[in-house]
Known about the structure:
Blueprint: H1 2-15, H2 18-24, H3 31-34, H4 36-59, H5 62-72, H6 75-80, H7 85-114, H8 119-148, H9 153-169, H10 176-183, H11 192-202, H12 204-225, H13 227-233, H14 238-266, H15 269-288, H16 292-320, H17 326-355, H18 357-378
Amino acid sequence: MLINAFVGGVVGVERSTLAPLGEHDFQVVSRTAILSFLISFGLVKAGSNLAAGWLADRFGRRMILVAGWIAALPVAPLIIFAPSWSWVVAANVLLGINQGLAWSMTVNMKIDLVGPRRRGFALGLNEASGYVSVSLAAAAAGFLAASFGLRPAPYVLAEGLAVAGLLLSLLTRETTRHVELESQGDDAPRPLAAAVVEVSFRDRSMSSACQAGMVNNLNDGMAWALLPLFFAAQGLDLREIAILAAVYPAVWGFGQLGTGWMSDVVGRKVLIVSGMLLQSVAIASFVVLQGFAWWLAAAVLLGAGTAMVYPTLLAVVGDAASPANRATSVGIYRTWRDAGYAVGAIVAGAVADAAGFPAAIVAVAALTGLSGVLAWTRMPGR
């Protein structure tokens, strides 16, 4: 959990500072061009998730975790010394590798350790540690930027978090023997292609989780990259933007302490469907309602909806996958989920350039509601 807090902290620094950096330091005007950092991050993180799961089922978790932290070390220096926006995009390629490898391994190691009956609760703890840290880092980075500038102060914080995460990961122990005990030697990893078909399309539970996860991160990408620009266009300063950027992942993070446990008790589907619909309403509220106080309330609702969905989708995949294929299955799900960052950046950026911020935000809200309806019709009840 502590290692995952550092994973979340590294990416949290960018939540309140990177999109404004594109406008302020590099004079990037196109919304699609500004969101290019998120496209590179999402695509690379998605591919890293797939590779991480497959490698972890064959070579163990700890090695992949450490490799993820090594990839994080150059990110902050690249952004601090970047002479052009392309350097920032390149830094987010490495950040995507870090998040794909390191966060994937904290998830899989937690699933290995806890067993099946309290899986939702354990994943709620894991995701809570990560996203509370995202919130705290986003707030800290925003206030550092307001006081000392967008560079270098926020990214010195990011580099310190990356070094701490690497040092802690070197102290971890391998968890694959827990997988061997759970499977009792009766299970073997299946070919990657067969696993992709099973998780993505054939299994109703896992395929429903894949589409909901993709749309969830599509709207999270919009919240990460587009909402700070929308708030700035409405006249908010960096401190107010930092508060809004921090409240949403804070509610998301702390909420998972309860929603993960709740999914073990009442089942996964009810939380997933209701959470997606709540997210849809919250996102639309940013356009329908006006003013900092209303946007703060909408950020709280968006965080609550995401808290209901995020650990529950991981638990669905953990439930349905066999132990020997679980890391691969989780990696495939996380590949679909994190591809949502790239899809969201392309959709939201293109719509914002063509029709403005409100149209892009409403389009994302509609896609999120549709995803909740699809999960309700396709996912089995328990």
